[in-house]
Fold:
Amino acid sequence: MTQSPLKKLHPDLSSTEDLEFKLKHKAQEIGKVGAVLGARENAALYIAGIFLLATVGILGLVMIFDPALRPDVVATLSTVVAAALGYIGGLTKK
Structure:
């Protein structure tokens, strides 16, 4: 007796309707923001990444428009980047 390909992938699903229902339910669960950023389990990672990109962008603009602040901005930027990458690294080891 052979199993259907669906049963091999998902033994708990009895039909394609069940699979479609589960996929729709998952899409509703993560919402519109989740569709862009991913599931809740990864939310902190994406928020940290967005924060890091925004900070680098803002400090980059400050460096362009006020060259006198460059040494201070470089020190701040290196600290923020190191802290954010450490946080992201800690999140990915869970």
Q: What stands out?
A: Residues 13-92 form one domain. Helices lie at 5-9, 16-37, 43-65, 70-92.
